[in-house]
Structures
1.
Amino acid sequence: MSPNKRYTVVVAGCGKRGMHHAAEFFKNPRFQLVGVCDIDQARVDAAAKQFGNPETSLDAASLLKKTRPDIFCFCTLPNLRLEMIRLGVESGVKLIAYEKPIATSTNEALEIMKLVRAANVKTVVSHQHRYGEHYKKVKEIVASGAIGRVHTVYGTATGWMLHMLTHLIEYMRWFNDYAEAEWVVGQASGKGKFADNHPSPDYVAGFIQYSNGVRGIVESGDGAPDVPEVEAWWRKCRIGAQGTEGFAEVLTGGGWRAITRDSKGVISGPGNMDYAHDMPPYIQEMADWLDDPEKVHPCNGERAYKGFEIMMALCRSASQRGKVKLPLGPGEPELEELARALPD
């Protein structure tokens, strides 16, 4: 595609995240926002007024049929993923952008990947924290070899699983050069958050064995370690890597810090989760990928699927009380199985 082409976009879901996406598509000259959709008329009207009065609808299917966009971006609750993906594929879009987690079960995720692969539709998933300068700094330190041979990657979050765990896993995989996961062992506790619109155990933890010998350690939810340096509990995420000669880690709401072979003590720097900073490159790189198939978006759906698979393997392990090997095949829906396995 010509780098001067404008790609047409429909955004479904006009809540907080939908508006973040719509705003960036609207501002970027590589895109034309041709439609917005939500089940709430007031939200649709407000979005349309803000973004140049594109087509509006309370029904995504009819809006897609009318506008036939290049890109379908949806920011809806997790239980609608497969339905929205199917609508995008059937309407002939080139790229679908959507929120994590990509599904609520392995069966659903496998069906999603089957659909988009068969239709050759590109997918991008909102693991946009990686654009933060503090995240990039940790990746730079780890990749430089300054902490020696990496033996452990880790991530903790006080937010619960379907909100936060694929974020942790994605950045751990990034720091570990996307080595394949071979097996996991997981444990979980608490059933309160299964009633949430991002249904999850209250707490989940586990170990991940990667093919390059690196071990991953994750914790998410009520019981995960506090990050007292960060005030806002939703940003109390800590992701890092330990090596033979030091460590480097990022705090989502509190910068980065490291000890390297040459640092002579702790070094650190600023950084914070910031949609105004992180969303523009996340959106721009969708145009770059559509322009040139070689410029694969770093938040592409194939990577997101690998991270989701690890999360579901942890759930299976907690339910089945044993080591779970990857890749996963279809099986009992993991959240239902886990909810039954956990004590009341």
Note: Residues 130-273+309-325 form a domain with the Dihydrodipicolinate Reductase; domain 2 fold (CATH 3.30.360.10).
2.
Amino acid sequence: MITGLDHIGLTVADPDACALAYEILLGAPPTNGATRRFQLVNMALEIGPGGGDPVFGLGLAAPDLSETRRVLERRGVSAEGAVLSRSATHGVAIALVADRPAGPPPARSDAPHALDHVVIHTPNPERAVALYGGRLGLDLRLDRANPQWGSRLLFFRCGGAVIEISADLKAPVGDGPDRITGLAWRVADPVAAQARLAAGGFDVSPVRPGRKPGTQVFTVRAGVPGAPALVLGGADG
């Protein structure tokens, strides 16, 4: 079955400009081709051409694609080739890919070396549990409702990263689509990373303590296309 998150896919109208922005954020150039691929320790970011607004998708790794598709079909998730049905995934683009080797170790301390988690907003958290935990078979590590934040958070371990499902506690449960709303990157030195990006013209927040003890975080409010980015370090960072 599924062993991890191989990559985050991002389609945009101007992939060259998008790749340049992520080159600054991630501190390294992509491999060039039809898809610009930024390889990190635990996954990759792939940027390709698209129309309209930026669209994110997930590439999930599996050692045996045929067997994984067979099992998913039995669980009610149909696929066309490697691409899972968008109705079964509630609007999130998800594809299956063969397992690939891990990325190289980090080359610098002031640039992200791994993805910590990807955030998916859902109007129906129980539907998300059924998909990511039941059908895709990911390990549910946390299910916590926090009235202070106004949200319910579900953490699914996916290899070396986490798929975080967020639901609004104040909104009624609905049947609308899920959508990817943010990426959180790990960095060894968040203070140096924040200073580097600020000097590069990115709109970044000040560094602040993270929710997890011993961590520091900052937000990239503008500068990269797609979803807002969180950069975190410290503790396990």
Note: The longest strand covers residues 4-12.
3.
Amino acid sequence: MTKPTIRNEKDGSVCEQKDGDTIIRAALRAGLGFSYECNSGGCGACKFELLEGEVETLWVDAPGLTERDRKRGRHLACQCRALGPVTIKAATAPEYKPKVLPKRQRAYLIGTRDITHDIREFRFRSEDDAEFLPGQFAMLDLPGLGASRAYSLSNTGNEKREWHFQIRRVLHGQGTHILFEKLAEGDEIGLDGPYGVAYLRTESPRDIVCVAGGSGLAPMISLTRGAVEAGLLADRKLYFFYGARTPRDVCGEEMLRVLAGFGDRIVYVPVVSLPGDNGDWHGESGFVHDVVARALPAELASYEFYFAGPPPMTQALQELLMVGHKVPFEQIHFDRFF
């Protein structure tokens, strides 16, 4: 059988697709800068046109494709496998070239801890190294599931081979059901990563703003830890906004408080959208993007922004920054998850 190879007419690049890989994973594993974000079928950033050859579609109804896309013969590189040599037309850009090549390995659950009533931290140790950039994510292959799940990392790259994920329990979610109810310490999973383009830009001289909602906490904690480890906060500040629905959903401060510079170089601002009527909440209330707009001391275009959370939050932040305050796109970093 002819080996599956992928040729991109856009830039002339060619790569080989290994067993189990999708087109996007094969390209990124080869160091190619194919456009992508979520790696899970939701965002549509990895759309391509099939010019020659045949592909297998893994998720026919993936929301990343519109009906118009399907009628025009477009596909998602994260949901397709080449069945032989194929020629495609896919968007590429230098910023998508992985700084750390993703790889598959086995990992084992070594511990968990509850962060809130519905967010739990899962710690895994891998066979090989834990090399990734602050803010990136990994694909987990969980027992009993046919498709990978993408989860963001909360720690930073380390020699202990540890990968930490802070995951929110999703009602009727198959992945979180296995993680929360089935997986026991010592159990093996498949881990593939790192992925993601919303990683910490250490070369930027600007003050940093991290905005998290829900389990978007994980990559923002990773970014903050990475900024401290890299010495970025010696001469600048990091503003950390956490948007929660109710006071009992608020989290993050305990992890930030132990970092050098907390309260001075690291400013934590929790925001609650539904504070209730009992008067127990005395912090900021409303939508987190509105608080970001009024709480930052300088013009928004002077900051480097990172954010992760529910789609309505990320959409509101994009509009606030790009449309409302003309923040340059290269100062805005996020990976869309749906």
Note: The CA atoms of residues 168 and 319 lie 26 Å apart.
